[in-house]
Amino acid sequence: MSYTALYRKWRPATFQDVKGQDHIVTTLKNQVISGRIGHAYLLCGTRGTGKTSVAKIMARAVNCEHPVDGSPCNECAICRGIAEGSSMNVVEIDAASNNGVENIRDIREQVQYPPTEGKYRVYIIDEVHMLSIGAFNALLKTLEEPPSYVIFILATTEVHKIPVTILSRCQRYDFKRIPAETIAARLKEVAKAENIVIEDRAVSYLAKAADGAFRDALSLLDQCVTFHFGETLTYDHVLDILGAVDQTIFSRMFNAVVQGKTKDAILLLEEMVVQGRELGQFVNDFIWYLRNLLLIQTAEDARELVDMSEDNLRQLEEDGKKTDANTLIRYIRVLSQLSNQLRYASQKRILIEIALIKLTKPQMESNIDSLLERIEQLEAKMEEGIPAAPSFPVNASAAVNAGSQGEEAPGEPPRQVSIPPAQLEDLNLIRNEWGNIVRQMGMSIRPSFRDTVVEPSGDSCLCIVFSDPINYAIGNRPSVIGSLERFVAEKYGKTIYFKTRQRERGERTNTIYVSDEELKEKIHMDISIEEE
User: Fold this and answer.
1) I need a surface site. Which of 22, 166, 224, 265 has the fewest CB within 10 A?
2) Rounded distance, CA 438 to CA 370, Å?
3) How crowded is residue 412: how many other Cβ atoms within 10 Å of its Cβ?
4) pLDDT digits (tens, 9 = 90+) for 218-264
5) From CA 423, how far away is CA 514, in angstroms rounded?
6) What stretch of H or E contains 292?
7) Which of 240, 251, 252 lies closest to 278 in space, CA to CA?
8) Taking residues 410-438, what's their average pLDDT?
């Protein structure tokens, strides 16, 4: 008898065998038990999470002669016929290769005839998002009002491509990625049944490498077992076969990057190339390592979220102290963009080298997070007493301290605007303390709030006007504004909200704000104030 791949051999046969999708399994079992069967189901989620398996189990369960707790018995003639593919009542269609209008018309003609055995005719349409627009339109009427003995089960990995008219006619079930610990537990069961001796550490790595897809985990296990047939499958064996790298290499690479040692980072990459490691896998694993670092820094009780040994956890916590969250986010962004490029690249090594140079030299990028990293590096040097000379000449007359309210061309008189007393009180408080506020908040706020103007913007609300577009891009982030509002509330006991905008070309900035009463006293006449 020919060999059957593990993922096919261990495909779930009952609802109880489906792991990690309890919210879906319980609902479908209850529908079978109560007889409240829907006419159209949409199963959506990433690859290898059990969509097609659940569809086949459902097809057998609704027709089974002796269902057990909502699951098929898999022993009656109908169950065996469906499992062997010989039953005329269950039709599986691959929409990737049968996506035309004529294919759907064939279904519409077939549904007119009741099942020859069992209760239902079940149509399973896999990758349904591949259907053409005409095919979707042809399916609409049948999907909305099928005969009582017809059930449609649609499966897709890209639910966003399915028309709303189809979605509204189906019961939708979203399949989640299966947790690594659930995959690991199932892999151990399969290994025991198949007489495969495998280390727990190797099982954990396979479960993580599967990225939430149980089918992928079984395929990887099959691949590893075949290579080391008859041997104990170790962690090192798995690394060799999958082209992966050991955990310590990520710590070494991270330290080279965070210290700006471009040469060391390139040499580490060279080491992995010589060892024959798969470079795309290395990038994905390094992103995961940086993700763990970010969790260690930002989340409470992050140890529960990071699945690794105690030794690796200690190393992770040690590395996490060497940089901040903003820098880690920049690293993850650069490497995530690289991961997308590597899929179709012929020169992966060169692209990775360019990315490592970007990581070690943030001055090569002009985006916000790179700018923040450079500012923090300069501040760290200044605190240590190391002079940080600019790499370009600075026009001293253009540098204005934080809190500056701007200047106008000489001879142009200021404009007076009246505002309610409460608004004027808030404005004067913040304007008088603006320099202190920016200095005390420090970090990335101090340089980005240079040459800003504070103006009224309604009750308990002020607007910060930026002159420089780069500073505006940094300063208008919700996290920065939120920190500013909390600081003002704690320091001055005032609840003031802040908005931001960029100064328009030629805009006046020497406006004088006075209260309504002050303006009336100055001009000695009644004033009617029109609301905009």
Assistant:
1) 22
2) 21
3) 9
4) 998 988 888 878 788 888 888 777 766 666 788 889 999 998 899 99
5) 10
6) helix 279-298
7) 240
8) 80
Give the DSSP H/E element, type plus range, for residue 51: helix 51-63
Can you tell me whether residue 54 is helix, strand or coil? helix
Q: What span, in angstroms and rounded, lies between the C-alpha atoms of 99 and 104?
A: 8
**297: enclosing H helix or E strand:** helix 279-298
Q: Report DSSP letters for 154-199, one per residue.
A: EEES-GGGS-HHHHTTSEEEEEPPPPHHHHHHHHHHHHHHTT--B-
> Residues of the chain with pLDDT > 90: what percent?
22
Give residues with Cβ within 8 angstroms of 218, minimum separation 6.
Answer: 5, 6, 7, 10, 187, 190
Rounded-to-10 torsion of CA 112, 116, 119, 122:
-60
DSSP assignment string, 346-383: S-HHHHHHHHHHHHH-GGG--SHHHHHHHHHHHHHHHH
Give the max Cα distance, the chain: 106
Cα distances from 39 to residues 91, 126, 139, 169, 389, in angstroms, run: 15, 17, 13, 9, 72
Instruction: Say if residues 15 and 61 touch (Cβ distance below 8 Å).
Output: yes
Spatial neighbors of 375 by CB under 8 A, at least 6 apart, are 444, 447
497 or 300, greater pLDDT: 497
Q: In which residue are the tokens 């200690």 written?
A: 314
Rounded to an integer, what distance in angstroms lies between the CA atom of residue 57 and that of residue 12?
A: 8
Query: Distance of CA 127 to CAs 9, 124, 156, 296, Å?
Result: 22, 10, 4, 39
- Residue of higher predicted confidence among 374 and 494: 494
State the Cα–Cα distance between residues 307 and 223, nearest whole angstrom: 24
